[in-house]
Amino acid sequence: MRWLLIDAGNTALKWEVVLASAAQWPGSAPGEDAQRWRGTVSMDAPDFADALARACAAGSAVTGAPAPSTVLGCSVTAPDRVQIIEAAIRAANAPTVRWLDAAARFDHDGIVLHNGYAQPERLGADRWHALIGARARYARGALAVVTLGTATTVDTLDAGGRFLGGVIAPGLEMMRSALARGTGRLPLAGGDYVAHPVATDDAIRTGILDAQAGLVERRLRRIREQCGRSVQVVVSGGNALALLPLLQGHGAPGNPAHEPDLVLRGLWHHARALAAEALTKPAG
Question: CATH number of the domain that 153 lies in?
């Protein structure tokens, strides 16, 4: 049996197919990465439905299974996009998508999280599963989980596994587009990051990246005031590589760490928790 895991963001959909019998997250062991069945497709891609059909078929030649036995996802995209995703999954003869939300608590695979949000269910499903994935990867200590996608989020997990809260800000591309739309003479810039820009495109690119880095650095000061100096910074999301060089040196060696699949990894642990729960339920 196989599980299809879906991370439906505002800009792109990421997916991963895993064997239900897998004892660890794919790619965790040397040589496993080449055997992974995963992909990314833009929400606006003309072949969006075909890409999802390929996702449902991924790995079938190896496993012999014609379609995933379970499809689990988390979504922050618009309802009409969710309907398109669900229709594409049905067309591929896969099971109905089960969308997973945040909860007050998670406890499985040795990962224990307490959701400190004022209304736990209102925390974004992607942020919650990224926290699960981050704790799975870094079992001890306080974490600052930075996700750089359509929006930029910085979330805090203390050493005891309590989510203390986080912030949401416009992402890199949203800031870039807003400048172009909201001003009369500034372009949709494609410049480079430089120390002292002397060209408009470079000035915009540098200003946006410095603004993003400044947000993360300010949040880290707050987090360290609350949790102590030793905080592991975990960076994920489609724009992570653009910001990582500016965040180097914030703490011990390995800070920050780039973990590109946090949401999918969190979904996998959630899937394992649901499978274990189903086995304990009485029949009938």
Answer: 3.30.420.40
